[in-house]
TrEMBL record:
Annotated organism of origin: Cohnella pontilimi
Pfam families linked: CAP
The protein's name in its UniProt record: SCP-like extracellular
Signal peptide span: 1-20
Keyword list, A-Z: Signal
CDD domains the UniProt entry points to: CAP_bacterial
Gene3D superfamilies per record: CAP (3.40.33.10)
Family annotation (NCBIfam families): spore_YkwD (TIGR02909)
Length: 213
């Protein structure tokens, strides 16, 4: 390993024109390049100084390493935020969260208890949204899973009351909620006193709400 460093060599001796008690300090800076470690460098310098001291006993030779500046730390620049693309995990989660909040806002206006967001229902809702998109249909009855109630049983979801809202093509959570609230059947599910849990999902233009109570 090549070591590059610097050290200061200082000598002190009586000044020629001053009293014996007066000394003059002279300092030299020496740069060195070596294949060894710092310990090797120190040993070499000590040996060198002993030789110099023996040759010039009238002087006192000392040295001290010169502190080296620490290497500059690399600067990490955070990449600029990119707008979410349609269908990305971030957008799917964000849209679902917004719909959930809008549902409870509508229930609060009606004096109803807020629904709890249920992870099992949300997972089922996302599977249903993907199923509609991938199999090119728009219906409560899935060619893969059957009715919403059949699908809940397949996903191990128990219920006393259950319901499902679906929509397609709306561009935002507010737009889909407006459409549902303007439809008596969908509005009835959102404001039902029989439901206590909800699952919400969005996937590439497909919107799904699952309710249980």
């Amino acid at each position: 390993m090549l070591t590059v460093g610097a050290l200061a060599l200082a000598i002190s001796a009586p000044a020629a024109t001053a009293s014996a008690a007066t000394t003059t300090n002279v300092q030299y800076k020496v740069y060195y390049y070596t294949q060894g470690s710092n310990a090797d460098v120190n040993a070499w310098i000590q040996q060198y100084l002993r030789q110099v001291q023996a040759q010039y006993p009238q002087y006192r030779w000392t040295y001290q390493p010169v502190a080296q500046k620490p290497a500059a730390k690399p600067v990490t620049t955070k990449p600029s935020a990119q707008p979410a693309k349609t269908g990305t995990t971030a957008q799917v989660s964000n849209f679902a969260s917004q719909v959930f909040n809008l549902v409870n806002q509508e229930r609060a206006k009606a004096g109803l208890k807020a629904l709890k967001l249920d992870s099992a229902l949300s997972n089922m809702a996302l599977v249903k949204a993907k199923d509609m998109k991938n199999n090119n249909y728009f219906s409560h009855n899935s060619p893969t899973y059957g009715s919403p109630f059949d699908m809940m049983k397949k996903f191990g979801i128990s219920y006393g009351y259950a319901g499902e809202n679906i929509a397609m093509g709306q561009k935002s959570p507010q737009e889909v909620m407006t459409a549902w609230m303007n439809s008596p059947g969908h509005k009835a599910n959102i404001l039902s006193q029989n439901f206590s849990k909800i699952g919400v999902a969005y996937y590439n233009g497909e919107w799904v709400q699952e309710f249980t109570g």
